[in-house]
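[09:14] KT: can someone run the structure on this one? pasting the chain below
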Amino acid sequence: MAKSKSFEEFYYVKTGKNCNVKAVVDYAKNKYGDYTPFEEAMFCPECEKAELFLVRETSGRRAHLKKKPSSSHEDNCSYIYDYASRKTIQNYVKGLTNCQIQEKLNSIMHMLFKVKNQKPNILTNNNISNSKNSSSPMLIPEVRKDVIELKSLRRKSLSSWIDETDGTDLYLFYGDVKLEIVEKEKVNVDGDSYKYYLLNLWTLNKNGEWKYRTQIYRGRNKDIIDINKEYRIAMIGNLNFKWKRWQIDLINQSAIRFVDI
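[09:31] RB: done, C-alpha cells below
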C-alpha cells in the first residue's frame, strides 16, 4: 500500500469537473477560512470515489488535499500505488517505441481530461498479462528479479504552483495551454550553422489571462501548432531550475503529446 498522498486537484461533484485546490483556498480566504460549499463534495480526481479534505497552508507547506482516513479509492486507481523511481520510468520509456509512447500519453490524456471512449491502457511492450490493461494509464510496470509490480507516475498540473520545492523528479505534466514555436540558430564545433526549436507554453490565470508559463527544448523537432488555438498537453519530464525561469526537460523527445481543443 502506498504512503498517503497529497492532491492538487479534486473531482467536484457539484459540477462534475476536476478543479484545482486553489479554488478552495481562494474561496476560504474570502470567507474567513470557511469552505463549506466544498466540504463532502471533493473526491479523488481519478477514481472519483475517495473523499478528500483540505490541509491548510502553513509557513512550511502549501495548501493541499488529503484522503479522509475513512474513505477508499477504487481498486484500479493509481493513487493507491507507490510512485515509480526515476530509473523505473527511464527503463519503461526506453522499452517503448515512439508510437507506443504516444499511445500511452493518449490514454493518460483521455483519463486526465475525462474524454469519453478511452482506448485501452498501454502498459508495456513486454510480456505482461492483458488482465492488467484495465488499470489506470498512470501506472507503469517495475520489473525486479522477474517479479512485476505496478508503480504510479507523479503528476503535476501546469496551472498549479511550481517552484524548487517540487524537486526534479520525473512527472507527468499536463494542462490546457497555448503554444508558440521559437526558432533558434547555432553554430557547431565545425563552424556549421543549424536550427533548433523551443516550445513556449502559456496557461490561463485566475483572471482569465494567458500568461507565459514555461519553455521546452525540442531540438530539431519543429512542432506544427496554431498560436490562436488552445491545446491539451501531456508530457513526461522533469523540472529544470538552472535557468532564470524554470523549464521542463523531456525524458524523451517523443514523450510529449498535444491536441487542439
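[09:33] KT: thanks! The chain is about 15% helix and 35% strand.
[09:34] RB: yep, looked fine to me
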